[in-house]
Amino acid sequence: xxxxxxxxxxxxxxxxxxxxxxxxxxxxxxxxxxxxxxxxxxxxxxxxxxxxxxxxxxxxxxxxxxxxxxxxxxxxxxxxxxxxxxxxxxxxxxxxxxxxxxxxxxxxxxxxxxxxxxxxxxxxxxxxxxxxxxxxxxxxxxxxxxxxxxxxxxxxxxxxxxxxxxxxxxxxxxxxxxxxxxxxxxxxxxxxxxxxxxxxxxxxxxxxxxxxxxxxxxxxxxxxxxxxxxxxxxxxxxxxxxxxxxxxxxxxxxxxxxxxxxxxxxxxxxxxxxxxxxxxxxxxxxxxxxxxxxxxxxxxxxxxxxxxxxxxxxxxxxxxxxxxxxxxxxxxxxxxxxxxxxxxxxxxxxxxxxxxxxxxxxxxxxxxxxxxxxxxxxxxxxxxxxxxxxxxxxxxxxxxxxxxxxxxxxxxxxxxxxxxxxxxxxxxxxxxxxxxxxxxxxxxxxxxxxxxxxxxxxxxxxxxxxxxxxxxxxxxxxxxxxxxxxxxxxxxxxxxxxxxxxxxxxxxxxxxxxxxxxxxxxxxxxxxxxxxxxxxxxxxxxxxxxxxxxxxxxxxxxxxxxxxxxxxxxxxxxxxxxxxxxxxxxxxxxxxxxxxxxxxxxxxxxxxxxxxxxxxxxxxxxxxxxxxxxxxxxxxxxxxxxxxxxxxxxxxxxxxxxxxxxxxxxxxxxxxxxxxxxxxxxxxxxxxxxxxxxxxxxxxxxxxxxxxxx
Length: 710
Known about the structure:
- The protein is α+β, with helices and mostly antiparallel strands and about 700 residues long.
- It has six domains: about 5-65; about 70-280, Thrombin, subunit H; about 285-360; about 375-460, Alpha-Beta Plaits; about 465-540; about 565-710, no CATH class.
- The protein has 26 helices and 19 strands.
- The strands form four sheets. A seven-stranded antiparallel beta sheet has the order 5-4-1-2-3-7-6. Strands 9-10-11-14-13-12 form a six-stranded antiparallel beta barrel. Strands 17-18-16-19 form a four-stranded antiparallel beta sheet.
- The N and C termini lie far apart (about 65 Å).
């Protein structure tokens, strides 16, 4: 048995022993526990442990049966559910070092199916040499070498513990995507890279009889891309659906991805349901907001999930995680449309079903920034979950929930590391402005913070010092002899390694690198401060100060946490929006009353007050940084009613401000305007239908504004 195979078996046995120890602890806790609720939870955890142990035993048996085993097949542990879907493709021949990436697209009762690039299959040695993770794989179908569609489907006769990545024709030029591929350092690891779709083109050659659809990809930072990314999925960030398979580079920063729509040309026996239709693809972030607006609290949502989607509900995670967990479950199992229908049937009294439906088909109504050009920051987020409870699917739900609350795409939050002391600390890469919003949200909104399951958030750094400032201090503040003396007196080990005639620049570069590796930068700064205080003050600062919430500041207990200034600004702009909207409707009603003597069209126009209320609610919520709550809902309704009723007075005040010296003329003009307005209003409302339309539209519009903002 090869040494690499022995290493993998030892690691598998170690993991199995850890699960056995956990199982022993849980069984002991079950014996001494008195609470019925805690016993139920413990039994559930025991069942999960037993299932994991069975899976590990099956993997160990499969590994022992493998005759030829590749070198260094160890792969880093996945941190999110998407990473669990990614598989490593290597060769059964230990001498073949080529590798690639694939991902799970389908499972049946006995096997798992992987989609990858045909180029990966050829590079690892051909159809008889393919390994998926640690399992031998069978090539079900593969594009010929000279064909442009370059796809391959693999079968592993093991049910991998990995979620399915849905396939579909989605995305358009400019859409953001994320791809996850395998890289090799001392061992294999999964790397996330973002980009955007540049162009959708057709290609062919003289060897094939059909056109191949190809995406051109723009990746601005492609320094991390290696050949191991061949076969990785190109995932649309809006609907989390694979739109292509990463192929290779066309030219600098421009890459190619084979569209998944070509799979039906390669795989004649492909299941018809494998490729999602366009009406099954939705903006999942919008669906999250829509679900949250339909349920009053977590208890109502839990009851709905337990009744209709028990397998897609996790009771042990925060509320916003539960929403994203359910969405991911329905998305993977093609049940999103069923979910949307069930929610609307459950809450018909909520009203405005038509406008609600528009909200989750609103790719055109809701625009996101395609590319965030600002620099990324590092942050450490402490989650309200114990370390042994964190699984990739739960962490993925947490990232989706945080991205939705911050109004950014999930792909902009990259998980760098998961630290598991007593509580879970996730180190993420996040846009700088989004980090500011997250810290502000943490301090202001206690309810949202609890629903997101965040205990604390703070900025962190890979390097905590401004090394450029330190280098300037050493160059400008000290001579070569002074630096050599500092090294000899305080950094003796470094000084002994310096050649006799080392120049000043070499001393500075070597000293900075030495104190970095030895974590002695503060000591060097103290010495520089003591010996040349003036230069030290001139070239500072030297220490980076992280952004973090104030530990002394208490968060606002109210859902909104509004100040008087914010309320005033939002109320004025909301009323202004309503004033402009009702003026447009009034002009339209006058025109229709003149054209249609029956008054039917004029009475129908007042129902436009209903979507106007929805717009006012959105405006008020947007101005208040997308905060919601009872206070915000009432503010939107009051702003709407004021804007719909007092706009003649507002117009008069505008005229008065323009020419204050002609006050009497303006007063006369105002009363004549009011008289004309009343005459026209009476003409428009000359029958009971118009009165019903106006009063009904105002009442329903105010309720619409309240519900949208709340």
